[in-house]
Design brief:
The chain contains four helices and 22 strands. With about 525 residues, the protein is mainly beta. The protein has a 22-stranded antiparallel beta barrel. The protein starts with a helix and ends with a strand.
């Protein structure tokens, strides 16, 4: 691909500004449609307003090259309201807010980014019929090869949305047998890039029997992925799979996986055998390992999920190679991406009650200025089916004074094809490979004073038509956080950003910033 075509792609990405109402209205409609019937029945309610304000002075507000740097002062306010309503048959958790950003010298346009994150679980018929739904509207990266987007800036940010609704049946036929059926619809969209909407439909029906010591399951799945673009495209996968389970010693379950699948890609339908094996190892309630590998139409696919926790430490590993079949890429947290989850696991022994433990985790994060998310690969919303190879590992240590976290990830996205087939790349190819590492240290200096430091290194390489395109980014941050009351705190610190890229239309840059902030939970 020539430099001029690269520049054209970059200009197309930056040409359209996101229209926030276009993605917010469907989110509000889904929240109201799903939540309103239950809200009136809520037996307990929790309302938690909060606000965070930050003032940042930076040497390079536009993240431009060395000959075009412009200093500026950026003001940002993030008001939020968290609502939690629950009864014996449902639970709703919603956070609604905004990220309001203004530049004193007009280096970038002032913007307001909406924030809507809501999840709902409801029981319509006990032990039989259930419903889950989620909505996420937030700001995310507009161009995966540019610098990371961040709260308190408008550079390389767009409003993105993901919605999901999932009714399902989970019925225990006997102490050893069960029936599970689920219908899942999910959508993702953004107005920043032409032809980037995605719609996924997943159907699953499974009959299972516990291994006593022999058991297994038979399941049917249908997955449909639709992509809007210069011409609408879709991919369809129908799979029938049987899994044998053999229990060994009460801790280990192993067995074969056999099946047949029909795949439709680029209007071509093929039937293939599916075969492999799986295992599940649970030596204690603190340790779990589950893995499955199978030969499929695209080659070898696998999933690996390993978890281990202690009262002072937790470690998590997820690795999968499979087609992208859900709209989780736009704001719905992926496994292993939320610091709250790791701290909650560590504190399980000390605080067995989930509600009490959630309050402890919330206070710990707020009072010590911890980030709520763990950095992972940049989300890429392509207009064609992709095969994802995604690896993420996280280690978190919680000591009396120190909280240390280490996260590493490696993700490759390629156009989905049959094994051995040559790809047919559409215009605007977004295949890429990303790797990154994040180190975090949070040290309590006194009962009210905390030092929080982090270092992030990441790299994204373009593949196929974008082969040779590389962006490398480094972010170093250090802050002092002081808790002035149980619900309020102030912080001050420095941050240094550095991006080196080979792509036309994107500047390599350096920027150093000083910031002060205040947060308050009402």
């Amino acid at each position: 691909m020539t430099q001029s075509s690269h520049a054209t792609n970059r200009q197309a990405i930056h040409a359209r500004r996101p229209s926030a109402p276009a993605v917010v209205r469907p989110a509000l409609a889904i929240v109201l449609a799903v939540a309103l019937p239950d809200l009136a029945q809520a037996q307990t309610w929790s309302v938690r307003p909060a606000v965070q304000a930050t003032v940042t002075a930076t040497t390079n507000a536009a993240r431009s090259g060395s000959d075009q740097e412009r200093k500026d002062v950026i003001g940002a306010i993030q008001p939020t309201i968290e609502l939690v309503g629950e009864s014996t048959s449902f639970r709703i958790n919603a956070t609604v807010g905004a990220d309001l950003v203004a530049y004193a010298n007009g280096t970038q346009p002032n913007r307001a980014y909406p924030l809507i994150v809501a999840t709902q679980q409801a029981t319509f018929v006990p032990r039989l019929l259930f419903l889950e739904s989620s909505v996420s509207v937030r700001a995310a990266e507009r161009d995966p090869f540019a610098a990371r987007s961040a709260a308190g800036t408008t550079e390389n940010r767009q409003t993105t949305a993901a919605y999901r609704i999932s009714p399902y049946i989970d019925y225990q036929v006997s102490p050893a047998s069960s029936v599970f059926a689920r219908y899942d619809e999910s959508w993702s969209n953004t107005d920043a890039v032409d032809a980037a909407d995605q719609h996924f439909t997943n159907v699953e029906v499974r009959l299972s029997r516990r291994p006593l010591p022999f058991g297994g399951s038979v399941e049917y799945t249908k997955q449909i992925a639709r992509f809007s673009g210069q011409g609408e495209s879709r991919a369809t996968f129908d799979t029938v799979k049987a899994r044998g389970d053999i229990a060994i010693g009460g801790e280990l379950i192993v067995g074969p996986v056999l099946g047949r699948e029909r795949s439709t890609l680029f209007l071509e339908t093929n039937d293939d055998n599916l075969y492999g094996a799986h295992l599940q190892w649970t030596p204690s309630e603190r340790t779990r390992l589950a893995a499955e590998a199978a030969r499929r139409f695209f080659g070898t696919g696998w999933t690996l999920d390993a978890q281990h926790r202690l009262p002072w430490m937790t470690i998590s590993l997820q690795w999968n190679r499979s087609p992208i079949t859900t709209a989780t890429s736009l704001g719905v947290a992926a496994a292993g991406s939320n610091l709250n989850t790791f701290l909650d696991g560590i504190l399980t022994t000390r605080y067995p009650d989930p509600a009490a433990r959630a309050v402890v985790v919330t206070n710990l994060i707020a009072n010590r200025g911890l980030p709520t998310s763990v950095q992972g690969p940049i989300d890429v919303q392509a207009e064609y089916a992709q095969l994802q190879n995604n690896l993420r590992a996280t280690w978190v240590l919680l000591g009396s004074r120190n909280i240390i976290s280490v996260t590493t990830y490696a993700q490759t996205l390629r156009q989905l094809t049959r094994a051995g087939a040559a790809p047919t790349l559409p215009a605007g190819n977004l295949d890429n490979r990303q790797v990154g590492v994040t180190l975090g240290l949070n040290r309590r200096l006194s009962p009210q004073l905390t030092l929080d430091a982090s270092a992030n290194w990441s790299r994204i390489n373009g593949l196929a038509d974008h082969s040779g395109d590389v962006s490398r980014e480094q972010i170093y941050r250090v802050a002092i956080v002081r808790a002035v009351s149980p619900r309020a705190g102030i912080s001050a610190g420095l941050q240094h950003d550095r991006l080196a890229t080979t792509l036309p239309g994107i500047d390599s840059f350096k920027a150093t910033s000083a910031f002060v902030g205040v947060n308050h939970r009402f």
